[in-house]
Design brief:
With about 80 residues, the chain is an all-alpha fold. About 90% of the residues lie in helices and about 0% in strands.
């Protein structure tokens, strides 16, 4: 699942750079409409990557909590030391 997050971040970074380039092109007389399309795509990809990252963070927290509970039930000394 981490690979998906990394891939989305790479894609969103590329789209963001293209959007920046289109925006700079507007200063030299480029098309505004093209920049707006890329800006919309940039927002969607960044939001998608951030949502996926939040999902993975929540999932990791849940897994860590479950592992600590199991370790405490088994009487593992490491579970007590980590607090």
């Amino acid at each position: 699942m981490g690979k998906v997050t990394i891939l989305l971040m790479i894609v969103s970074t590329i789209v963001m750079l293209v959007t920046f380039g289109k925006g700079m092109g507007i200063l030299r007389g480029g098309e505004v409409e093209s920049h707006l399309y890329w800006a919309g795509a940039s927002l969607v990809t960044v939001l998608g990557a951030n949502m996926m990252a939040m999902f993975h963070a929540a999932q990791s927290d849940r897994i860590i909590r479950e592992l600590r509970d199991r370790a405490e039930r088994d009487g593992n000394a490491l579970a007590r030391e980590s607090d």
